[in-house]
Write a structure and sequence with these properties.
Length: about 350
Protein backbone atom coordinates (compact mmCIF):
# COMPACT_ATOMS: atom_id res chain seq x y z
CA UNK A 1 0.00 0.00 0.00
CA UNK A 2 1.05 3.57 -0.53
CA UNK A 3 0.47 5.71 2.45
CA UNK A 4 0.90 9.42 2.66
CA UNK A 5 2.08 10.81 5.93
CA UNK A 6 0.05 13.86 6.69
CA UNK A 7 1.29 17.19 8.06
CA UNK A 8 4.79 16.02 8.36
CA UNK A 9 6.38 18.81 10.34
CA UNK A 10 3.52 18.88 12.82
CA UNK A 11 3.54 15.18 13.42
CA UNK A 12 7.27 14.94 13.57
CA UNK A 13 7.47 16.31 17.09
CA UNK A 14 4.75 13.98 18.24
CA UNK A 15 6.56 11.12 16.61
CA UNK A 16 9.76 12.12 18.32
CA UNK A 17 7.93 12.03 21.63
CA UNK A 18 6.38 8.74 20.65
CA UNK A 19 9.77 7.21 19.98
CA UNK A 20 10.75 7.85 23.55
CA UNK A 21 7.41 7.35 25.25
CA UNK A 22 6.21 4.30 23.39
CA UNK A 23 8.57 1.85 25.03
CA UNK A 24 7.05 2.78 28.37
CA UNK A 25 3.52 2.77 27.06
CA UNK A 26 4.05 -0.41 25.16
CA UNK A 27 5.19 -2.27 28.20
CA UNK A 28 1.95 -3.96 28.78
CA UNK A 29 0.35 -2.76 25.63
CA UNK A 30 -1.08 -5.73 23.88
CA UNK A 31 -0.99 -5.58 20.14
CA UNK A 32 -3.42 -8.20 19.11
CA UNK A 33 -5.58 -7.55 16.16
CA UNK A 34 -8.59 -8.19 18.28
CA UNK A 35 -11.47 -10.34 17.29
CA UNK A 36 -11.89 -10.45 13.57
CA UNK A 37 -15.24 -12.07 13.62
CA UNK A 38 -18.16 -9.82 13.08
CA UNK A 39 -21.80 -10.55 13.02
CA UNK A 40 -24.83 -8.53 12.14
CA UNK A 41 -27.22 -9.28 14.96
CA UNK A 42 -26.92 -8.91 18.70
CA UNK A 43 -28.18 -11.90 20.58
CA UNK A 44 -29.12 -12.55 24.14
CA UNK A 45 -26.95 -11.42 27.00
CA UNK A 46 -23.75 -13.38 27.28
CA UNK A 47 -22.68 -15.78 29.98
CA UNK A 48 -19.79 -13.83 31.43
CA UNK A 49 -19.31 -15.90 34.52
CA UNK A 50 -19.63 -19.50 35.39
CA UNK A 51 -19.24 -21.16 38.74
CA UNK A 52 -15.72 -22.31 39.45
CA UNK A 53 -14.52 -25.30 41.33
CA UNK A 54 -11.70 -23.34 42.88
CA UNK A 55 -13.54 -20.08 43.41
CA UNK A 56 -12.65 -19.66 47.03
CA UNK A 57 -10.77 -16.93 48.82
CA UNK A 58 -8.23 -15.31 46.57
CA UNK A 59 -9.91 -16.50 43.38
CA UNK A 60 -11.25 -14.29 40.64
CA UNK A 61 -14.65 -13.93 42.29
CA UNK A 62 -13.06 -12.51 45.44
CA UNK A 63 -10.76 -10.03 43.72
CA UNK A 64 -12.18 -6.65 42.78
CA UNK A 65 -10.67 -4.65 39.94
CA UNK A 66 -11.31 -0.92 39.61
CA UNK A 67 -11.58 -0.06 35.92
CA UNK A 68 -11.40 3.51 34.59
CA UNK A 69 -14.12 3.66 31.94
CA UNK A 70 -14.13 5.84 28.80
CA UNK A 71 -16.94 8.01 30.23
CA UNK A 72 -14.78 9.00 33.20
CA UNK A 73 -16.47 6.76 35.74
CA UNK A 74 -14.74 3.97 37.62
CA UNK A 75 -16.36 0.55 37.44
CA UNK A 76 -15.76 -2.06 40.11
CA UNK A 77 -15.76 -5.53 38.59
CA UNK A 78 -14.72 -8.91 39.88
CA UNK A 79 -11.53 -10.21 38.29
CA UNK A 80 -13.67 -12.81 36.48
CA UNK A 81 -15.94 -10.15 34.97
CA UNK A 82 -13.02 -7.95 33.99
CA UNK A 83 -11.00 -10.79 32.44
CA UNK A 84 -13.94 -11.91 30.31
CA UNK A 85 -14.02 -8.45 28.77
CA UNK A 86 -10.25 -8.36 28.22
CA UNK A 87 -9.97 -11.80 26.65
CA UNK A 88 -12.98 -11.05 24.42
CA UNK A 89 -11.18 -7.94 23.19
CA UNK A 90 -7.64 -9.24 22.97
CA UNK A 91 -7.91 -12.61 21.26
CA UNK A 92 -10.22 -13.98 18.56
CA UNK A 93 -12.78 -16.18 20.30
CA UNK A 94 -12.32 -18.71 17.52
CA UNK A 95 -8.83 -19.50 18.84
CA UNK A 96 -8.06 -22.83 20.52
CA UNK A 97 -9.38 -23.19 24.10
CA UNK A 98 -5.84 -23.66 25.46
CA UNK A 99 -4.71 -20.44 23.77
CA UNK A 100 -7.67 -18.59 25.29
CA UNK A 101 -6.75 -20.01 28.70
CA UNK A 102 -3.16 -18.82 28.24
CA UNK A 103 -4.53 -15.40 27.30
CA UNK A 104 -6.77 -15.33 30.38
CA UNK A 105 -3.79 -16.08 32.66
CA UNK A 106 -1.65 -13.52 30.87
CA UNK A 107 -4.38 -10.87 31.24
CA UNK A 108 -4.93 -11.79 34.91
CA UNK A 109 -1.20 -11.60 35.60
CA UNK A 110 -0.88 -8.27 33.81
CA UNK A 111 -3.74 -6.90 35.92
CA UNK A 112 -2.25 -8.20 39.18
CA UNK A 113 1.08 -6.68 38.18
CA UNK A 114 -0.58 -3.30 37.62
CA UNK A 115 -2.27 -3.58 41.02
CA UNK A 116 1.05 -4.51 42.64
CA UNK A 117 3.06 -1.57 41.35
CA UNK A 118 0.71 1.06 42.77
CA UNK A 119 -1.36 3.89 41.32
CA UNK A 120 -1.04 4.69 37.63
CA UNK A 121 -0.71 8.49 37.20
CA UNK A 122 -3.10 8.28 34.23
CA UNK A 123 -5.87 6.87 36.45
CA UNK A 124 -4.83 7.08 40.12
CA UNK A 125 -8.24 5.93 41.37
CA UNK A 126 -8.41 2.83 39.18
CA UNK A 127 -6.20 -0.23 38.82
CA UNK A 128 -6.55 -0.39 35.04
CA UNK A 129 -8.27 1.42 32.20
CA UNK A 130 -9.82 0.39 28.88
CA UNK A 131 -7.35 2.31 26.72
CA UNK A 132 -5.11 -0.08 24.80
CA UNK A 133 -2.28 2.45 24.64
CA UNK A 134 -2.21 2.37 28.46
CA UNK A 135 -3.59 -0.95 29.71
CA UNK A 136 -5.48 -3.82 28.06
CA UNK A 137 -8.27 -3.83 25.49
CA UNK A 138 -11.82 -4.14 26.78
CA UNK A 139 -15.00 -5.33 25.11
CA UNK A 140 -18.33 -5.02 26.91
CA UNK A 141 -20.61 -8.07 26.64
CA UNK A 142 -23.26 -6.19 24.67
CA UNK A 143 -20.66 -5.03 22.13
CA UNK A 144 -19.27 -8.56 21.93
CA UNK A 145 -22.76 -9.92 21.28
CA UNK A 146 -23.28 -7.42 18.47
CA UNK A 147 -19.91 -8.28 16.96
CA UNK A 148 -20.23 -12.05 17.21
CA UNK A 149 -23.82 -12.40 16.03
CA UNK A 150 -24.95 -16.01 15.87
CA UNK A 151 -21.75 -17.21 17.57
CA UNK A 152 -22.24 -14.97 20.59
CA UNK A 153 -23.51 -17.61 22.98
CA UNK A 154 -20.88 -20.19 22.01
CA UNK A 155 -17.97 -17.80 22.10
CA UNK A 156 -19.16 -16.09 25.26
CA UNK A 157 -19.21 -19.45 27.04
CA UNK A 158 -15.85 -20.40 25.58
CA UNK A 159 -14.24 -17.27 27.00
CA UNK A 160 -15.98 -17.68 30.35
CA UNK A 161 -14.54 -21.20 30.55
CA UNK A 162 -11.04 -19.94 29.70
CA UNK A 163 -11.31 -17.57 32.66
CA UNK A 164 -12.94 -19.95 35.15
CA UNK A 165 -10.75 -22.93 34.25
CA UNK A 166 -7.71 -20.87 35.22
CA UNK A 167 -9.34 -19.20 38.22
CA UNK A 168 -6.80 -17.35 40.37
CA UNK A 169 -3.82 -18.71 38.42
CA UNK A 170 -1.01 -16.30 37.60
CA UNK A 171 2.46 -16.28 36.08
CA UNK A 172 4.96 -15.77 38.90
CA UNK A 173 8.62 -14.93 39.03
CA UNK A 174 10.21 -15.03 42.47
CA UNK A 175 6.69 -15.39 43.83
CA UNK A 176 5.34 -12.20 42.25
CA UNK A 177 3.07 -11.59 39.24
CA UNK A 178 5.17 -10.75 36.19
CA UNK A 179 4.79 -7.92 33.72
CA UNK A 180 3.04 -10.25 31.30
CA UNK A 181 3.41 -8.40 28.01
CA UNK A 182 2.14 -10.05 24.86
CA UNK A 183 1.69 -9.27 21.18
CA UNK A 184 0.07 -10.62 18.04
CA UNK A 185 2.58 -12.55 15.90
CA UNK A 186 6.32 -13.11 15.65
CA UNK A 187 8.70 -13.82 12.80
CA UNK A 188 10.00 -17.14 14.09
CA UNK A 189 11.25 -15.91 17.47
CA UNK A 190 10.18 -13.50 20.16
CA UNK A 191 12.55 -10.72 21.23
CA UNK A 192 14.39 -10.15 24.48
CA UNK A 193 13.02 -7.09 26.27
CA UNK A 194 16.47 -5.53 26.16
CA UNK A 195 16.30 -5.51 22.36
CA UNK A 196 13.07 -3.53 22.32
CA UNK A 197 12.96 -1.45 25.48
CA UNK A 198 16.58 -1.47 26.57
CA UNK A 199 15.92 -3.00 29.98
CA UNK A 200 16.74 -6.60 30.75
CA UNK A 201 13.92 -8.60 32.36
CA UNK A 202 14.88 -12.19 33.20
CA UNK A 203 11.55 -13.74 32.18
CA UNK A 204 11.28 -11.76 28.90
CA UNK A 205 13.93 -13.56 26.86
CA UNK A 206 13.94 -14.45 23.17
CA UNK A 207 12.35 -17.84 22.43
CA UNK A 208 11.14 -19.69 19.34
CA UNK A 209 7.59 -19.03 18.19
CA UNK A 210 5.86 -21.49 15.86
CA UNK A 211 3.31 -19.40 13.97
CA UNK A 212 3.75 -18.65 10.29
CA UNK A 213 1.89 -18.20 7.09
CA UNK A 214 -1.48 -18.99 8.65
CA UNK A 215 -1.41 -15.61 10.41
CA UNK A 216 -3.61 -13.06 8.59
CA UNK A 217 -1.49 -10.28 7.08
CA UNK A 218 1.68 -12.03 8.27
CA UNK A 219 3.57 -10.20 5.52
CA UNK A 220 2.78 -6.56 4.84
CA UNK A 221 4.37 -3.88 2.70
CA UNK A 222 4.59 -0.17 3.39
CA UNK A 223 5.72 2.10 0.59
CA UNK A 224 6.81 5.68 1.23
CA UNK A 225 7.66 8.13 -1.58
CA UNK A 226 11.35 9.07 -1.33
CA UNK A 227 10.66 12.77 -0.81
CA UNK A 228 8.30 12.00 2.02
CA UNK A 229 10.80 9.62 3.58
CA UNK A 230 13.51 12.27 3.33
CA UNK A 231 11.32 14.94 4.96
CA UNK A 232 10.12 12.73 7.79
CA UNK A 233 13.52 11.26 8.54
CA UNK A 234 15.42 14.56 8.36
CA UNK A 235 12.96 16.15 10.76
CA UNK A 236 14.06 13.52 13.27
CA UNK A 237 17.71 13.30 12.24
CA UNK A 238 18.81 16.53 10.53
CA UNK A 239 22.41 15.28 10.62
CA UNK A 240 21.60 12.46 8.19
CA UNK A 241 22.92 12.77 4.65
CA UNK A 242 20.10 11.88 2.27
CA UNK A 243 21.47 13.88 -0.64
CA UNK A 244 22.67 10.88 -2.63
CA UNK A 245 20.72 8.24 -4.51
CA UNK A 246 18.13 6.48 -2.29
CA UNK A 247 19.64 3.11 -3.20
CA UNK A 248 22.58 4.00 -0.95
CA UNK A 249 20.68 5.40 2.05
CA UNK A 250 20.42 2.18 4.06
CA UNK A 251 23.61 0.47 5.25
CA UNK A 252 25.10 -1.66 8.03
CA UNK A 253 21.96 -3.36 9.24
CA UNK A 254 22.34 -5.13 12.58
CA UNK A 255 19.76 -7.86 13.18
CA UNK A 256 17.77 -8.75 16.28
CA UNK A 257 17.55 -12.32 17.53
CA UNK A 258 14.46 -12.82 15.33
CA UNK A 259 16.15 -11.48 12.22
CA UNK A 260 14.45 -8.10 12.48
CA UNK A 261 16.17 -4.74 12.50
CA UNK A 262 18.04 -3.90 15.68
CA UNK A 263 19.78 -0.91 14.11
CA UNK A 264 20.39 0.30 10.59
CA UNK A 265 22.30 3.30 9.29
CA UNK A 266 20.13 5.72 7.35
CA UNK A 267 22.12 8.40 5.58
CA UNK A 268 25.02 7.59 7.90
CA UNK A 269 22.96 7.82 11.12
CA UNK A 270 22.34 4.62 13.09
CA UNK A 271 18.71 4.29 14.20
CA UNK A 272 16.76 1.57 15.98
CA UNK A 273 14.40 -0.62 13.98
CA UNK A 274 11.75 0.19 16.57
CA UNK A 275 12.19 3.89 15.81
CA UNK A 276 11.61 3.31 12.09
CA UNK A 277 8.64 1.14 13.00
CA UNK A 278 7.07 4.04 14.89
CA UNK A 279 8.05 6.66 12.33
CA UNK A 280 6.52 4.83 9.38
CA UNK A 281 3.76 2.93 11.18
CA UNK A 282 5.11 -0.55 10.42
CA UNK A 283 3.36 -3.54 12.00
CA UNK A 284 6.64 -4.74 13.51
CA UNK A 285 10.35 -4.00 13.52
CA UNK A 286 10.96 -7.22 11.62
CA UNK A 287 11.39 -5.75 8.16
CA UNK A 288 13.67 -5.46 5.19
CA UNK A 289 13.94 -2.14 3.41
CA UNK A 290 14.73 -1.31 -0.20
CA UNK A 291 14.84 2.01 -1.99
CA UNK A 292 14.83 3.13 -5.59
CA UNK A 293 14.51 6.53 -7.23
CA UNK A 294 10.82 6.78 -6.37
CA UNK A 295 10.05 5.02 -3.17
CA UNK A 296 11.25 3.34 0.00
CA UNK A 297 9.64 -0.06 0.50
CA UNK A 298 9.41 -1.81 3.86
CA UNK A 299 8.57 -5.53 3.76
CA UNK A 300 7.32 -6.43 7.22
CA UNK A 301 6.68 -9.78 8.93
CA UNK A 302 4.52 -10.28 12.03
CA UNK A 303 2.72 -7.77 14.18
CA UNK A 304 3.59 -6.21 17.50
CA UNK A 305 6.57 -5.40 19.69
CA UNK A 306 7.68 -9.04 19.79
CA UNK A 307 8.23 -9.42 23.56
CA UNK A 308 6.52 -12.02 25.77
CA UNK A 309 3.71 -14.27 24.55
CA UNK A 310 2.83 -14.33 20.87
CA UNK A 311 -0.94 -14.79 20.58
CA UNK A 312 -0.79 -16.54 17.21
CA UNK A 313 2.15 -18.56 18.50
CA UNK A 314 0.06 -19.61 21.50
CA UNK A 315 -2.69 -20.69 19.14
CA UNK A 316 -0.23 -22.67 17.00
CA UNK A 317 1.15 -24.38 20.11
CA UNK A 318 -2.37 -25.20 21.30
CA UNK A 319 -3.23 -26.70 17.91
CA UNK A 320 -0.13 -28.86 18.16
CA UNK A 321 -1.29 -30.17 21.53
CA UNK A 322 0.29 -27.88 24.14
CA UNK A 323 -1.68 -26.93 27.22
CA UNK A 324 -1.93 -23.39 28.58
CA UNK A 325 0.72 -23.97 31.25
CA UNK A 326 3.19 -25.24 28.66
CA UNK A 327 2.43 -22.27 26.41
CA UNK A 328 3.08 -19.80 29.23
CA UNK A 329 6.26 -21.40 30.52
CA UNK A 330 7.52 -21.48 26.95
CA UNK A 331 7.00 -17.77 26.31
CA UNK A 332 7.97 -16.52 29.80
CA UNK A 333 11.37 -17.87 30.81
CA UNK A 334 11.93 -19.29 34.29
CA UNK A 335 8.44 -18.60 35.60
CA UNK A 336 6.12 -20.65 37.78
CA UNK A 337 2.38 -20.90 37.22
CA UNK A 338 0.39 -20.92 40.41
CA UNK A 339 -2.28 -19.30 42.54
CA UNK A 340 -1.54 -15.71 43.29
CA UNK A 341 -1.47 -14.78 46.96
CA UNK A 342 -1.55 -11.24 48.19
CA UNK A 343 1.43 -10.38 50.37
ZN1 LIG B 1 -4.43 2.36 31.95
Amino acid sequence: MIRTLRPVAATALLLLLAVFLLPMLLLGRPEGEGPEETGPLPTASLPIQRPTAQGGAGGDGATLVRVAMPDGTTASLTMAEYLWRVVAAEMPASFEPEALRAQAVTARTYTLYQMSIGPNPSHPDADVCTNISCCQAYLAPEEAAARWGAEAQTWGEKIARAVSDTDGQAILYEGKPIDAVFFSSAAGRTLDSVEVWGGSVPYLASVESPEGEEVPNYHTTVTVPVEEFRTVFLTQHPEADLSGAPEGWFRNRVSTSSGGVDTVEVGGVAVKGTALRTLFDLRSANFSVAADGEKVTFSVTGYGHGVGMSQYGANAMARAGSGWREILTHYYTGVVIGPWKKT
